[in-house]
Design a protein that fits this description.
- By secondary structure, this protein is α+β, with helices and mostly antiparallel strands.
- It has seven helices and 18 strands.
- The strands form three sheets. Strands 1, 2, 3, 4, 5, 6, 7, 8, 9, 10, 11, 12 and 13 form a 13-stranded mixed sheet that branches.
- Helix 1 packs across helix 2.
- The radius of gyration is 35 Å and the shape is elongated.
Amino acid sequence: MKKEDLIIKWLDNNLSESELKAFKELDASSTFMKLDEAAKQFKAPQFNVEENLEKLLRQKPAPVKQLSWKRYISSIAAALVLTLGIYFVFFNNNETTFFAQNTQQTEFNLPDASEVVLNAGSHIAYIKSNWNNNRSLNLEGEAYFKVEKGSTFTVNTSHGTVTVLGTQFTVKSRENYFEVICFEGLVQVIHNNKSYKLPGGNSLSFVGNTIQKDYTKLTEPTWLHAKSSFVSVPYSEVIQELQRQYNLEVELDASHGDTLFTGSFTHENLETALQAITIPLNLSYDIKGNEVVLKTR
């Protein structure tokens, strides 16, 4: 007899001696029997029907409140407005966000097929459902954009905005540093309410009140190929980039922070990277686990 049939007959208390023996040999039989014994211990509470009926009849019925139909309709309308508001907030305005953790890069396409690559320690957010009406995104960190021709959109950062039309460029927006490099086409940069036109082969950076314009022969950022490059960049920013690419802490004498650095470091070997950024400044380094201490020689 099948296991299911034995259980059904046991529940109906309709097993023969041989069937009962077979049931007890089932793996689950002990569990069923324990449940059966526990169920026998339950007792229904004592209930006096006549006494409780008499108490019920002696109670006075509670007055019924008349509900105004206008108030009823208003309540429904308010609930409907609230429901629609919640829907539009959570479903129509939901943000799409991409992250690149330290030591990593993240690649994705925008709804218009434009390509984006996030550098380490960066994130970007935009409203995907409303992209055709509002081609705008928010960036914290650094990203490379390869924009489809005819697709215009704006990159918002805490330092300013960059508006583009069919171009390739990078935007770097860190705590005390803002940089835009245009590799191809034309971008418009707005910083502190001032507008700048930046054609391909040019870069623009802002450090405090200092504005620096430069040229580049690159066709894309070097960090796409595991190398960070700098041209007259504050040394403190170089160190912060090293921390993001290797996910470590660096201790540096504050006196070196504002020194301008031109050079590069690899993302693939920490010793080589440290030599590349310390030798030009006559610094030494000491690696202690996940920490690096830089000192003057």
